[in-house]
Amino acid sequence: MAESVPDRDSDYRDGLLNRRRVLGDAWVDRSLANVNDFNGEFQNLITRYAWNEVWGRPALGDKTRRLMVLSTMIGLKAWEEFALHTRAALDGPPESRLSAQEIKEVILQAAIYCGVPAANHAFGIAAQILRDRGLLPPKAN
After folding, report:
1. What is the pLDDT of residues 103-131, one digit of tens each?
2. Which CATH number fits the domain 61-141, given the four candidates 1.20.1290, 3.30.300, 1.20.120, 3.10.290?
3. I need a surface site. Which of 63, 89, 116, 122 has the fewest CB within 10 A?
4. Helical residues (DSSP H) of 24-59, grouped into ranges
């Protein structure tokens, strides 16, 4: 009996839809504009696997996955990805959007499990993004 071979084109298309839903068209368009012969296979891989195979699974939903990604990025100290996903969480569709309070709770939880220095840095990044969006008052000098 032959194993079925996944349809890579379909996986890519579905992954791209999820990626756009979660991160927004502008971010995805910028990412795709930077695809070249060197990184193209990697972009295709993450679109098919991360954005289709994982983000496309129905059990958790986008809001829970957003919370998990923020926590994971703090634990990994992947600050650019943390900022990207914080912005996406604030801008996402209403049903999966995170509030400033929910982001704060993620960082507080991470303080215990990932360490206070990581949480301190995450608070700084998130606070600046919230200020940029008018969700926090400007920084006092």
Report:
1. 999 999 999 999 999 999 999 999 999 99
2. 1.20.1290
3. 116
4. 25-33, 40-48
